[in-house]
């Protein structure tokens, strides 16, 4: 019997130590995940604003869509920059009076998205430059 009690005591002690170590590991993991770089919060917020823009577009709330796109694009969200450029290029043709077409601003957002690696933005910039060269599309951008 004393041998069985000794084994039970060792197992209990080992189990307790294992739980303490596991708790420590979990606390460390929680601390590491909470200590994200400050840029991670900005990206998450920009992604959330981009998702809100897509929801507003689906609901046909184009003013809200435009605001969310501007916010996300300003924070450096490449997809938002690309989409904002497209929205500003098409303007009222797709979005009614809520969105004014602005080829100059569209070009600026497309350039920003292209710098971030967007192939679509590069193609759209070529198209936009051709539009500016057309007789009724010529407009100086500052």
Description:
Helix 6 (103-115) packs antiparallel against helix 7 (119-133). The protein has 142 residues and is mainly α. The protein is built from 7 helices and no strands. The N and C termini lie far apart (92 Å). It has helices at 2-34, 38-58, 62-74, 78-90, 92-95, 103-115, 119-133.
Compact overview of the structure:
The chain has 142 residues and is mostly helical. The chain contains seven helices and no strands.
| Span between termini | 92 Å
Note poorly predicted spans: 35-40
**Major sheet size, sense and barrel closure:** none
Share of β-strand residues: under 5%
SSE run: HHHHHHH
Q: Give the total of beta strands.
A: 0
Using brief descriptors, characterize the structure shown.
142 residues; mainly alpha; 7 helices; elongated
């Amino acid at each position: 019997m004393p041998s069985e009690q000794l084994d039970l005591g060792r197992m209990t002690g080992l189990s307790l130590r294992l739980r303490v170590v596991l708790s420590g590991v979990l606390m460390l993991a929680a601390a590491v995940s909470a200590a994200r770089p400050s840029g991670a919060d900005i990206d998450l917020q920009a992604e959330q604003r981009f998702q809100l823009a897509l929801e507003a577009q689906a609901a046909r709330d184009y003013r809200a869509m435009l605001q969310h796109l501007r916010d996300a694009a300003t924070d450096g969200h490449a997809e938002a920059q690309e989409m904002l450029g497209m929205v500003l290029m098409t303007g009222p043709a797709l979005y009614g009076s809520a969105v004014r077409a602005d080829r100059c601003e569209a070009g600026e957002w497309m350039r920003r998205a292209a710098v971030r690696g967007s192939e679509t933005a590069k193609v759209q910039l070529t198209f936009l430059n051709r539009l500016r060269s057309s007789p009724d599309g010529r407009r100086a951008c500052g």
